[in-house]
Protein: Transposase
Amino acid sequence: MTDQSSIPENDPADTTDADAPEMLGGQSGDTAVKDPEEWVTGDEPMTGAQRSYLDTLAREAGEEIPATLTKAEASEHIDRLQQATGRGATS
Structure:
C-alpha cells in the first residue's frame, strides 16, 4: 500500500495550467516586426520568394535592382517598392 500523505494535492493557488497553449512574447508587443538591420540572418542571400516578389515589384516600378541582395537589403527594397507601386500593406 502506498503512503498517500507524500502525494501533493492540487494547490488552488497554482496558476500553471498544463492544458493551456504555449505562449510567446507576452506583453512586449509585436516581435514579428523587426528592423532588417537587426535580423540574425539578414546577411544571408535573399530567399527565392523575396527574389520573385522583388522582380515583380521592380518591373512594375520600372527599376532594375541587383540580384545579389541580402535578405535584409531585399526586405528594404520590397518595403520601398510596395510604397512606390501601391502594393502591400499601408502604414
